[in-house]
Design brief:
By secondary structure, this protein is an alpha+beta fold. Helix content is 36%, strand content 23%. The protein is built from 3 helices and 4 strands. Keywords: Lipoprotein, Metal-binding, Methylation, Prenylation.
Length: 114
């Protein structure tokens, strides 16, 4: 899936916020932004409706095009290999569990100031 949007951003700080907001979605393959034309190109396996809704909450956003991504034959095989590697990694190396220790509450002895 390839999505091309026109997002009204005025500086690099806003650009980084847009990129951070979009990169949080699952299935995003690549993000590119042309500041001169104010075009954001998102590709990968994602839901374009969710991406556009997220951006429209904070920035004026227009959809320029939505469609399948054009891929070369060599890149398809390479992308599939990368996906297989990522799946294998996620299968065998799950995120570590975090345990928190909360010490028992101990009442301090009464202090009397004379």
């Amino acid at each position: 899936m390839k999505l091309v949007l026109k997002v009204e951003v005025h500086d690099h700080k806003a650009k980084s916020k847009v990129m951070q907001a979009v990169s949080g979605f699952e299935g995003i393959g690549s993000l590119t932004m042309d500041m001169q034309a104010k075009k954001l190109t998102v590709s990968g396996d994602f839901d374009p409706v969710k991406v556009v809704n997220k951006l429209r909450k904070s920035w004026h956003t227009e959809i320029l095009s939505v469609g399948p991504a054009k891929e070369d034959d060599g890149k398809k095989d390479e992308g599939k290999k990368n996906e297989d590697i990522v799946k294998a990694f996620q299968t065998y190396y799950s995120p570590p569990l975090t345990y928190y220790y909360v010490p028992p509450y101990e009442e301090t002895p009464g202090c009397v100031i004379c």
